[in-house]
Amino acid sequence: MTKRGELKNISKVIEEVFSQKQIRIGIDNIKVQDAWKKTMGKNIQKYTFKVIYKKGILHVKLKSSVLREELTYEKLKIIKLINTELGKEYIKDLVIS
User: How far apart are CA 71 and CA 49, in angstroms?
Assistant: First the structure.
């Protein structure tokens, strides 16, 4: 911790801010949501109601029961595709409802 009036490198300040747990969780959530959109494409995105990432689990709500069934069969493939897009294993499970 620095004293008041002491100068810090801006990159260290940014690193400290982004390393805070609540901010990191929010950033991870946004990254995963963006990866879902990019990986699944516009057609599936039209039927996507809500995408939430929490503690390694991606929760996706869909408007179409037929699409929900199809994606449920391809769950492991979807997890692998999204994790590949992210460059890190964020998603351990996918819940489609």
Answer: 14
The answer to whether residues 27 and 15 touch, using CB atoms and an 8 Å cutoff, is: no
7-50 residue pLDDT tens? 778 888 777 776 777 777 888 889 999 999 999 999 999 999 89
- In SS3 terms, 11-68 reads as HHHHHHHHCCHHHHHHHHHHHHHHHHHHHHHHHHHCCEEEEEEECCEEEEEECCHHHH
User: Distance (Å, rounded) from C-alpha 4 to C-alpha 21?
Assistant: 24
Domain ranges across the chain: 41-97
Closest CA to 67 of 90, 93, 88, 40: 40
